[in-house]
Amino acid sequence: MQCALGWLLLAALLLCPRGRALAEDASDYYHRGFVKLARGDQDGAIADFTKAVELQPNYAEAYKNRGIARSVNQDQEGAIADYTTAIKLRPVYLEAYFGRAAARIAKGDRAGAIADYTKCIELQPDSASAHQKRGLIKSANGDQDGALADYNQSIALQPDSAPTYYLRALAKSAKGDRDGAIADHTKAIELKPDYADAYLGRANDRRAQGDIEAALADSTRAIELMPNLPSAYLERGNARSAKGEREGAIADYTRAIELKPDFTQAYLNRGLDRQAQADPDGAIADYGKVIQLKPDHAKAYHLRATVGWEKGDWLGADADESKAIQLKPDFAAARLARGCGRFDRHAFSDALADLRKVSETGFRKDYSLLRIWLIRARLGEVTAATAELQSQWAKRTNGKPGDWTSQIQRHLCGEIPESQFLAAAKHSDPKVEAGQICEAYFFAGYKILIEGDRAKSVDFFQKAVATGKTNFFEYQSAAAELKRLKTN
């Protein structure tokens, strides 16, 4: 009797217009919100989903879809709250975990996103998408091995996924496995022949391997597929620059900038090629633009300083190097350049402090030690300077005995005569030889100047400058000393 009464009460409730209206109203609002969401009316969808959950507080689908709409509206906090409520109502709600993971990524919560994708994999072990997405986050975290494991599993589950092969290629490239990366990019292209990003990735790896012609072909193909892709012009510009086609590279960087006016890397690379093309003003303008767009870009300050040193703007260059060091205290290249610039200004105490700091880092340590000898010897500490240099060289772990910098060290310490030292500068590669001759005449000339032969030092400094290696510190120092000797 009681059981029959229960069924009668339930039937009465279902037939009650008020009870039926509540369920229908919540469903109606939900479906109306769903249509609005599909049409891109996020605000309207949110309003309808909100009404649905007010009428039916346990409506998991409505919370999940309101989370989608809020995420599209960039309200990630609200989206995460909705996805979390949906999951509480339905702990195995796979779509809600996927949605919450995406919202967490948007907020920069990579750990939370990994946890959600891991839950997705627990709920659906054969989800290629969950493995792929978790791999992407691991790669962004620098965990390339973890990313590769996820990509491998994703590919095993879905062997025809071109994007996963592309992502695995990026992880392999980050680990230095260029051959593996090229193979994966190639597979991605086989699966999707119009995959511009895969062509672009393969171009980058081929350029890193020195296969410049293939890199040019791939980057050009990427441009054909996506003519308005700024990164494609950047990559082709990089390949052209590596090939020595400076004008073509500058044209590509310029096109990249036209398509993306805030493209700092394109400005930076164009500045480098303009500097190599003896266009210092153009280079300074490009480096300045990078600084304007990104005031904390230490490398841009350093590169602008390198042009300043070449132009003889010592104070401006010193200020830029100092700013680079302030932004990045361990920036050894900037500190070495500032030390050499202060050497040229005869600010020996400051130069010595910079060079000693650089020598402690190991960056171009040989040249820091050689400059330290020059400063100490110039200050009258020849014996102590020689003892220090010999002691430091005995503990040297980089380079090989008898290499070029060892020849400089031996000459400064009086272990080999000038004629033998200058002869050692000869090299089978003309470019290498020009650089070594520049260095040889600078160091030999400075040693001669310390010993008191002013006229011969002038001759040697002139020979260093005659090499035209304007981007060498030794060229710049020889030019600075020549100017001082001719003035005084």
Would you kindly provide a written description of the structure presented here, covering whatever features stand out?
This protein is mainly alpha-helical. Among the domains are: 108 residues, Serine Threonine Protein Phosphatase 5, Tetratricopeptide repeat, CATH 1.25.40; 73 residues; 72 residues. The chain is built from 28 helices and no strands. Helix 13 runs antiparallel to helix 14 and helix 26 runs parallel beside helix 28. It is elongated and about 100 Å long.
Key features?
80% helix; mainly alpha; elongated; 488 residues; Serine Threonine Protein Phosphatase 5, Tetratricopeptide repeat; disordered N terminus
The helicity comes to over 70%
Distance between the termini: 121 Å
Query: What CATH architecture of one domain would you give?
Result: Alpha Horseshoe
User: Per DSSP, what share of the residues sits in E-state strands of 2 or more residues?
Assistant: under 5%
What's the gist of this structure?
The protein contains 28 helices and no strands.
Write the layout of secondary structure elements.
Elements: H1 2-15, H2 17-39, H3 42-55, H4 60-72, H5 76-89, H6 94-106, H7 110-123, H8 128-140, H9 144-157, H10 162-174, H11 178-191, H12 196-208, H13 212-225, H14 230-243, H15 246-259, H16 264-276, H17 280-293, H18 298-311, H19 314-327, H20 332-344, H21 348-361, H22 365-378, H23 382-394, H24 404-412, H25 418-424, H26 430-451, H27 454-466, H28 473-487
Helix pairs in contact: 2-3, 2-4, 3-4, 4-5, 4-6, 5-6, 6-7, 7-8, 8-9, 9-10, 10-11, 10-12, 11-12, 12-13, 12-14, 13-14, 14-15, 14-16, 15-16, 16-17, 17-18, 18-19, 18-20, 19-20, 20-21, 20-28, 21-22, 22-23, 22-24, 24-26, 26-27, 26-28, 27-28
